[in-house]
Design brief:
This protein is of the alpha+beta class. The chain has seven helices and 15 strands.
């Protein structure tokens, strides 16, 4: 499913999926975002039973386009390198747009605050797993030779994933972002995934990443790194159009005050966007390597 240079080939992937008897397909959101840029109507999906996604949250707009074209939903799952799947959309349950589903039945999982106390429905907290009830399967024992980190993430019988989310009254979980990805702008706390999902609906946006960028007045501002769809060119007018698009679909303080166009976003080998790379680049660009104002 990759070309000679090792890059993901969306067209080849669709051809293999629909002609080689594949019944279940799992891919990271990056792959699905590239797949929907192809003409999905050219392919026959009747042999495929399930589509799943993991690695990072999948934007609702991508899910909508995929289901309209294939007639089948994408079932998201959430887990970590440190664990197996912890939350998921199972084939027997109804799905909610933007939700990563419900906790797996054999674990005690909850949304806790920084003091490891339960957060009420609708309030953002950390996804935590109860680890003092043996036998516990599917969660690591700890980080090798790192007692400080282990002491931080294992507290009061819980393991904190470091990922922030909230759940609704029906028990469905909604991903907000890594704890260190949360943007603190003028007193507001902004989760990058929500803004990314809004920008993903813009007709010119193929892919985007939202990070915090240092600002002397607001502390941090929302910055968007955007990869454009074929046929679109970077321009100041397009920046303004994307910003207005975001303002109309989310709270005014969440729109990206800066937008930078890129040919591609930095990613891990598994296709996850390296937001930390983009965030650190912004810190160096605005504050210098020492992390202090360069003025």
């Amino acid at each position: 499913m990759h070309n000679a240079e090792g890059k993901f080939n969306a067209k080849l992937t669709l051809e293999l999926l629909t002609t080689k008897g594949v019944t279940v397909f799992c891919a990271p959101p990056t792959a699905y975002r590239m797949l929907i840029l192809e003409d999905l109507s050219k392919y026959e999906y009747s042999a495929l039973r399930r589509f799943t996604s993991a690695g990072e949250p999948l934007n609702p707009e991508v899910i909508r386009v995929w289901e309209e074209a294939t007639g089948k939903a994408i079932h998201e799952g959430y887990g970590q390198t440190e664990s197996t799947i912890l939350v998921g959309n199972y084939f027997f349950m109804d799905m909610k747009p933007g939700s990563m589903g419900k906790p797996v039945p054999d674990m005690t999982i909850d949304i806790l605050d920084e003091d490891f106390k339960p957060s009420p429905p609708g309030e953002v907290g950390y996804i935590c797993v109860k680890v003092d009830q043996p036998p516990l399967l599917g969660v690591f024992e700890g980080y090798l030779e790192d007692p400080e980190e282990n002491a931080r993430v294992f507290q009061r019988g819980w393991y904190s994933t470091g990922d922030k989310a909230h759940r609704d009254a029906d028990g469905y979980y909604y991903f907000v972002g890594r704890g260190d990805d949360i943007i603190k702008a003028s007193g507001y706390r902004i989760g990058p995934f929500e803004v990314e999902s809004v920008l993903q609906e813009h007709p010119a946006v193929a892919e985007n990443a939202i990070v915090a960028s240092p600002d002397p007045i607001r502390g941090e501002i929302v910055k968007a790194f955007v990869v454009l769809k074929p046929g679109y060119q970077p321009s100041e007018n397009l920046i303004k159009d994307i910003q207005e698009f975001a303002k109309q679909r989310t709270a005014p303080y969440k729109y990206p005050r800066e937008i930078e166009f890129m040919d591609e976003l930095p990613k891990t080998v598994s296709g996850k966007i390296k937001r930390a790379v983009l965030r650190n680049r912004e810190i160096e660009r605005k504050l210098g390597k020492g992390g202090k104002s360069s003025s």
